[in-house]
Amino acid sequence: MMSLYVTLGIFLLVAARNPSANRSLIAFTAWSSLAHAAVMGFQAFRNLIARGELIGVAVLIVIGVALIVLAPVKQSVKHRHPPPVPKARRNSGLSHWLPYLSRFSAGGRTPHNGLCPSAVRFAPC
What we know:
Oligomer: single chain
Strand order of the largest sheet: 1-2
Strand content: under 5%
Structural class: mainly alpha
Distance between the termini: 73 Å
Largest sheet: 2 strands, antiparallel
Shape: elongated
Number of helices: 4
Order of helices and strands: HHHHEE
């Protein structure tokens, strides 16, 4: 468990450089600390672990609440700039129809199998 918290701590130190971009990591750390505190508190009161572990519960609650309170505020939608919308591409003239027209070239046969559709079945052209 200690390796998990050491790794998470390193990533939090990196995330502290740009907290607005790393809100999800900060929120995950806060809520996982509170969840861990809840599980440890339940275990301590049911005598599954030593009562001395309640000190760890208090520390985890303080860490979780501090991270939630100090987390950067989510930027509202009205302050964001929408991404640029690409201009629609226009097909000029026959370029749009070329894939459909190419099957009628070469003497009326399709370039793939030489068969043309008939009313009932595929038959040679």
